[in-house]
Every structure is written in structure tokens, then in C-alpha cells.
Amino acid sequence: MHPELTVVIPMYDEEQVLPLLVSRLRPVLEGLHTSYEVIAVDDGSRDQTPVLLQRYRRDWDELRVVRLRANAGHQAAISAGLMAARGSWVVTLDADLQDPPEVIAEMMSVAREGDVDVVYGVRTDRRSDSVFKRLTARLFYSGMRAAGAKDLPDNAGDYRLMSRATVDAVNALPEHHRVLRLVIPSLGFPSASLGYTREVRAAGRSKYPIAKMLRLSVDSLTGFSLTPLRLATWFGLGGFLAAVGLLLYALVAKITGLTVAGWTSTVVIVAAVGAVQLLCLGIMGEYVGRIYTTLQRRPTYYVAYDSLTGADAPSRTGTHPGRD
Ligand code: UDP
Ligand code: MG
Questions:
Q1: Are residues 181 and 207 in the same domain?
Q2: Distance from Cα 129 to the centre of ligand 1, integer Å
Q3: Nearest C-alpha to atom 24 of ligand 1 is from which residue?
Q4: Is-contact 174 223, C-beta < 8 A?
Q5: Are residues 68 and 193 in the same domain?
Q6: Helices of type H across the chain
Q7: Cα dist. 213→74, 178, 225, 286 in Å?
Q8: CB 49 within 8 A of CB 15
Q9: Which of 300, 257, 248, 235 is nearest to 77 (CA)?
Q10: Which residues' Cβ are closer than 6 Å to ligand 1?
């Protein structure tokens, strides 16, 4: 009764790319000769995306639409899709065809032959991405690894295939604002990687402005690493050593009668110490904020509608992990 494969696709204002996506994805999935469902997670789109989705559903039984009540963001939309997915295997991909759907067949065979739970799609060729995107991506992956996320596969985005066991494990996590590309490797399940060429966005504009990219980076860092908190300790230690040095210097100056005209050094020290303290407070604030939002248990998304049940689903929110 449950399909073999679920394809989860988050979409936010993707009316321009949707026809292209359907015409490329559908033949690929039909060529697999297994049962499947496609879950289009409409992340509160304000354009014609929901209308188009309903139209495609008329002659595509396998297409299922989960509409979120408001824009919840890429990661939350994928989480909503994972919660709704019924397949024994679940693949997540972007709507804009940057992740070529043809790779799904290969992912399935890699997973079955290698007997692994996760197959990461790894971008071997990012030439289609802008210089800025590639630079920030490199910073993200090396930064995260330096901060302790050791098992993070390089250049693995959100194009991946997961077994039912993996999806259940992710759904059971209580964590808020989780970054799936870090959470899934951290489970440590048997995995494999599959290289693919990242294509250019087929139509429409990117829905990832710098503010969202920064948010993702801060969520990644504070969700996975305590290293930034320890920065305060290192700054403190450095400050202490500098203070000891200064004390010795002051004593020597006093004894030799060389009194210092100390305005500049005083101002510099005060400013530097103040800046470091503010930085450390800000870092602590990020973690405290994370604890705070997790304790509030406020949902990260609200499901407005699921075409599988047909009715409104007010009880289905991001707060109550677990399959229904
Ligand atoms: N997306 C979403 N909600 C958002 C922003 C993006 O569901 O708030 C979807 C978007 O429709 C696309 C995927 O997430 O399917 C990746 O977004 P995009 O291609 O704009 O990001 P980029 O590739 O530029 O990083
Ligand atoms: Mg994209």
C-alpha cells in the first residue's frame, strides 16, 4: 500500500520552474518501474504555484500536495515533507532543477547494492553557481568541519536519498531549526556518496537571499558545535597573559622612573576588551536563544492542507514529531 519511493520537493514561489520540473521529473520516476509518490511541499507560495500544483494533480495520481500555512523556510519545508513521506526510500531535491532528477535512479541502485541508509548527492561541479555562492559554500563546509562537524560530506547539499529508518530517526528528533545536511551525517548511519553536476536554476530567481544564508550558517554552527562558546575562554586566557605582561611592564616603568603617557594604550585596551566581551555575549546569546526556542516548543511550520487526506490538518505541526 505504501509507495516504495517518496520524492520530497520544497517549493516557494516556483511557478516559473514548475512546468519544467514536472516534464523532467515525471518520465524519470515512471522509468523506475516502482511505486512512488511525489510530495510537493508548498512553502506558503504567494504566486500561482498552488494553482498549478492542483492542475497537475488532475492527471498525475502520484503527485501529493502538502501546503504550509505560511512560509517556513527551506529546511522546515523539507522537514514537513519528511514527516508526511510514506515511502521505504525518500529522496529530497530542490524544485529549480539544479539537482538533476535523472540521478535518482542511480541513487536507488547505489543504496540497494551498497546496502546503505543514506546516499548523499555530492556536487562535483559547481561551475554553474556564482563565484559568491561557491566562495560562501566553501567557507560553510570548511568552517563547519573546523568547528567539529567532522562527518559532514564536502559539498553535499539537500539532494539525498534516505532509508525509512533514517527518515524515522530524523522525524523523532525534537530539535528546532535543525539543519538537515548536518543532522543526517551525525546519525552515523551507513552511507555512500554519488557525484553529480550542479546545473543552473532552470527558471525563476533564487529564494535564498543573504539573510537566509546567514541564518542557515548560524543555525548550523550553534546546532552542532560548542567551539564558539569556548572562544570566550581562549580570549580570556589571552587577555590574562597580556595583563600579566602589562603588569610587569608597569612595574619596570615605575622602578626606572619612566612614567608612561598612557592615554592611547588605555583607550585601545578598553576598546579591545569591550569588543571581545560583546562578541562573547553575542555568541552566548545565540545559544541561549536556541535553548529558548526549543523549550517553547513552538512549531517551525504549520500544515494547512494535505491532498492525501483532502481535509485541513490543523493538528499536524512541527512540534509533535512522530509518524501518524
Ligand atoms: N525554498 C523553500 N522555502 C524558502 C526558500 C526556498 O521551500 O523559504 C525552496 C525553493 O523553492 C527551492 C529550494 O528551496 O526548491 C532551494 O531554494 P533556491 O533554489 O532558491 O536556493 P539556491 O539554490 O539559490 O541556494
Ligand atoms: Mg536553487
A1: yes
A2: 14
A3: 206
A4: no
A5: yes
A6: 18-30, 49-58, 74-84, 103-114, 131-146, 164-171, 180-187, 210-224, 227-255, 263-296
A7: 11, 14, 18, 16
A8: yes
A9: 300
A10: 10-12, 14, 43, 71, 73-74, 77, 94-96, 98, 201, 206-208
Strand-pair category, 89-92 with 5-11: parallel
Q: What sign results for the dihedral spanned by CA atoms 233, 237, 238, 243?
A: positive
Strand order in the sheet with 36-42: 191-197, 118-125, 156-163, 89-92, 5-11, 36-42, 63-68, 303-306
Total domain count, the chain: 2
Domain match, 270 and 171 both: no
Nearest residue to 35 (alpha-carbon basis) of 62, 65, 73, 69: 62
Residue 156 grid coordinates: 553535499
d(CA 120, CA 107): 8
Same domain, yes or no, for 239 and 163? no
What mean pLDDT is reported for the chain? 89
**pLDDT value at 53 more than 90:** yes
244 and 121 within one domain: no
**In sequence order, what are the residues at sequence separation of 6 or more whose Cβ sits closer than 8 angstroms to the Cβ of residue 183?**
170, 173, 175, 223
C-alpha cell at 284: 552566548
Q: What is the CATH number of the domain that holds 81?
A: 3.90.550.10
* Cα–Cα distance measured from residue 153 to residue 144, given in angstroms and rounded to the nearest whole number: 11
For 288, the domain range is 227-296
Q: Is 68 helix (H, G, I), strand (E, B) or coil?
A: strand
**What's the pLDDT tens digit per position in 250-274?**
888 888 877 666 777 788 888 888 8
- Quick one: 188 and 275 in the same domain? no
Atom from ligand 1 closest to the CA of residue 213: 25
118 within 8 A of 163, measured Cβ to Cβ: yes
pTM: 0.84
Asked if residue 286 and residue 304 are part of one domain, the reply reads: no
Tens-digit pLDDT profile for residues 130-173: 888 888 888 888 888 888 887 788 888 899 999 999 999 999 99
Q: Are residues 78 and 30 in the same domain?
A: yes
